[in-house]
Amino acid sequence: KTECQDDISSNDKSYNGRSIFYPAVLSGNKEVIEYLQGHVHNSTELLSKEMKNDNCRTFEECIVRNNLTDLLNFLLKLKDTSPENQLPESVILGICMRAVELNNQDIVSIILESQYGREALQFTDTSGRTVLHHGSKYPKLVKYLLESAEQILDKVNTGFLPIAS
User: Who wins on pLDDT, 10 or 31?
Assistant: First the structure.
């Protein structure tokens, strides 16, 4: 990996205090993101910091809108890295919620098939709504969510899927 942190990865003047991953993800250019992951010295740390940023909803939406499944898989693997690079669970669950809102079943299925599947089904937004509430305008997606919930709950043989009113 390239030792170019000062020049490319965190240039405050060029990226308004953000890392180079911010414009890369906003652009939706998978090739650039993959290149950065492979060539920037501290890419895992930088990407993790971006996702922990207070305004990561924009980041989440870009991942979903651009169907950045490779980036999502990379983020899911961050849980297995050192503690300073780990993402809060809420980031992954937020991406799932955005994916349901935008009817992106590819992203939803990756998260539901990950270690976050159960939590994603139970996650509620600030209004107390679950993925089922947000997906209600997409019948195929709701069917998929219900089938996934049944499979996930069968695996653990416990629990419930909250449906707030």
Answer: 31
